[in-house]
Amino acid sequence: MNFSAANVAASPVLVVITAYDSSCSSPLSLKAGASVHIGRYYTGSETWENWVYCTPTDGSAAGWVPRSYVDDDGLLLVDYCAHELTVQVEERLFFIKEQGGWYYCGKENTKEVGWVPKTCVAARPT
Question: What's this model's pTM, rounded to 2 decimal places?
Fold first, then answer.
C-alpha cells in the first residue's frame, strides 16, 4: 500500500519515541486465499497478542501473521505483508491500522509502509 495525498491527510500522525530496527530481512508476503499451516501463538513478554506463526503451503518463507487474518482452515483472508519499518526517534508516521500490539504505518518522509511496535510510537501532540 502506498500513500496518496488523501490517505496522508486523513491519517492520524504518530511520532516515534523509541527507535526500532527491523529484524526481518525477508518478510512474509501473501495474497488473500493463500494456504498456510497455522503454528504456535506468539508468547513473548511483549504485549503482542493474537499473532500466529504461519508456514505457507507453497514452501515460501514463514512468519508471524495476525490470527484474525487467517481462517480456521489456514486460508489467508486478506493480503498481508510482514514488512517491519526501521524507525528513528522523532520520525513521523501516518497510522493505518492496529493489530495485536503493532501499528501498520507509513513513513512521512518516504511513504514506505510497514509494521512498528505500538510501544515505539506516541500520538503527535496537538
Answer: 0.85
Homologous superfamily assigned to 5-24+83-123: SH3 Domains (2.30.30.40)
Torsion angle, CA of 40/44/49/53, rounded to 10 degrees?
Answer: -30
- The phi and psi torsions of 119 (rounded to 5 degrees) equal -70, -10
What is the structure's pLDDT at 1? Answer: 47
Condensed to tens digits (0 to 9), the pLDDT of residues 102-123 reads 999 999 989 899 999 999 999 8
Q: Whole-angstrom Cα distance, residue 70 to residue 23? A: 23
Q: Which of 108, 100, 111, 113 is nearest to 124 (CA)?
A: 108
Task: Please give the grid coordinates belonging to residue 78.
Answer: 486478506
| pLDDT confidence bin for 35, thresholds 50/70/90 | very high
Helices (H) and strands (E) in the chain, counts: 1, 10
The domain limits of the chain are 5-24+83-123, 29-81
- Domain 29-81 coded CATH 3.30.450: no
State what percent of residues in the chain have pLDDT above 70: 90
